[in-house]
Amino acid sequence: MTIQEKFGRIEGIKLTYIGVHNNVCNSLITAGLKTGMEVTVAAPEINPAAVDEELYEAARKAGTYKASDQLHQAVANSDVVYTDTWVDMEFFTDPAFKEEKERRIKTLSPYQLNAELLAGQDVLVMHCLPAHRGYEISGEIVEDPRSIMFDQSENRLHSMKGLILKLLGAL
Q1: Is the pTM here over 0.90, yes or no?
Q2: Cα separation values, 84 from 61, 112, 122, 162, 171, Å
Q3: CB 98 within 8 A of CB 104
Q4: CATH class for domain 2-167?
Q5: SS3 of the chain
Q6: In this structure, are residues 2 and 9 in contact, taking their beta carbons and an 8 Å threshold?
Q7: Rounded to whole angstroms, what are the CA distances from 142 to 112, 139, 146, 148, 153?
Q8: Is the Cβ–Cβ distance between 135 and 105 less than 8 Å?
Q9: How far is the C-alpha of 24 from the C-alpha of 56, rounded, in Å?
């Protein structure tokens, strides 16, 4: 909804997802498959629960999905860059998850959305929120004029209200 609002279209938009390949990433690949948006994934690891080979194959065949290990090139070829938390919210402060959190931070730090990565790039920045500032995204990029995260959040609110009305039979 937010991409449509900002660009006036979704088809042909080039979105790069950066971080842990997870359920959010799969939702973006599905959206790309249904709308013609091109989704590139730059992710050094995948959440095992998110593996969906049938989805990836269908999207590859449609030309709407590819994986890349060239982070800077992927960003340079994008209209939108999107990230999500590296550590699931329920584990972020869990002492039992401390070692895994540290491992992920070390592995994923080169994938942080920050001023250096986005320098000179004419891209919009999305995040499904809440964000861990200083981890998957720097605080300065959260507040950057290219960030449309808060528009995205507002649109999600309106979408959910519409869904509730539909489920209640009001629409």
Answers
A1: yes
A2: 26, 10, 20, 24, 32
A3: no
A4: alpha beta
A5: CHHHHHHCCCCCCEEEEEEEECHHHHHHHHHHHHHCCEEEEEEEEECHHHCCHHHHHHHHHHCCEEECCCHHHHHHCCCEEEECCCCCHHHCCCHHHHHHHHHHHHHHHHHCECHHHHCCCCCEEEECCCCCECCCECHHHHCCCCECHHHHHHHHHHHHHHHHHHHCCCC
A6: no
A7: 12, 5, 9, 9, 13
A8: yes
A9: 14
What is the C-alpha separation between 108 and 81, in angstroms, rounded? 16
Query: What would the pLDDT profile of 43-52 be if each residue is shown by its tens digit?
Result: 999 999 999 9
For residue 94, the one-letter residue type is D
The answer on pLDDT for 90 being more than 90 is no
- DSSP lists the bridge partners of residue 20 as 45
What mean pLDDT is predicted for residues 67-86? 97
